[in-house]
Amino acid sequence: MQASEERWLIVAFLLPTVAFMLLLLWYPFLQGVWMSLHRWPFMGDPEWRGLGNYTAFVNAEYFWVALQSTLIYSLSTVFQLAIALVAALVLKQRFIRWRTLWRGVMLVAYAMPPVVVGAFWLFLLDPGLGMVTHYLIGWGILEEPIYWFSDGSWAKWIITFVATWTFWPFMFLILLSALQAIPDSHYELAEVYGANLWQRFRHVTLPHLWSALLVVIILRLAFNLAKIDQPFQLTGGGPGYETSILSVLVYRFAFMSGDFGMAFTVGIFLVVFTLVLILPFAWLFQRQFRPGH
Fold first, then answer.
1. Counts for the chain of helices (H) and strands (E), in that order
2. Is 49 in contact with 38 (CB distance < 8 Å)?
3. CA distance 231 to 238
4. Domains of the chain, with CATH numbers?
């Protein structure tokens, strides 16, 4: 086959993928950028504003509150990773009995629909009927009920906790699969050379697990920051804007205020915020496959 024919064959195979990305990814994104430059009401004609939406959002009193809430919510990725890594390492040990049963138990929260999980925690944390408040008062930890979702300082961490509880099994599955792919002979050789538990983790487990760790961090950061159903169900973005992470703020502007221009403006900020968090891990992941590493 001649070089020109090979090039045309490569183009033919790539064309559907390129067309898919242009139509379903780049066109909506560019349309969103265009809409963010307008006052774009649900009813009525759009009005050109230029960078007015961006200026208004940055100068709004809730801007830093929303960024702080989004940053705290993104910390759920760190908590998910810590729990998932410990659970995967424990279940990798040979002395653990009924490992299949424990794996199934750990996946229960992830198997539940997020809306059901939200309703579950709304009930548990209800100040009047919830078990959490009941037992905390009974044990003397609290003197009176706490309105968890009405207190901004508590609500930020509650939605972060619920996200951690719901989605850490996703990381657990991937990390456990990566751990099981490590040959036992590597650990046996390390033991022959007198490596202790920490040294085996550092020099055997971690190098084999590093790529999987980066992948789950990137995926969970992207998924967490795009979530809206569970945080909105728990708090509605309130009180005020205290738990209005950027994804919830997009929903509030679009479907509660009817201002699609401002909604897409916040969406652009969300894209930038996500990229700022993800790109360092993506760079580390790409660096893994460079020659000499």
1. 16, 2
2. yes
3. 10
4. 64-245 (1.10.3720.10)
- Decide if 92 contacts 144 (C-beta within 8 A): no
> 8-31, pLDDT tens digit by residue?
777 777 888 878 777 777 888 888
Q: What is the pLDDT of residue 3?
A: 61
165 and 156 Cβ atoms separated by less than 8 Å:
no
Instruction: Please provide the distance, in angstroms rounded to a whole number, between the alpha carbons at the two ends of the chain.
Output: 36
Candidates 247, 229, 239, 240; CA nearest to 147 is: 239
The predicted-structure confidence for 44-81, as pLDDT tens digits, reads as follows 788 888 888 999 999 998 899 999 999 999 999 999 99
Task: Name the burial class of residue 188, with classes exposed (0-12), middle (13-18) and buried (19+) by CB atoms within 10 angstroms of its CB.
Answer: exposed
What's the pLDDT tens digit per position in 97-118? 887 788 888 888 888 888 888 8
105 token code pair: 């138990």
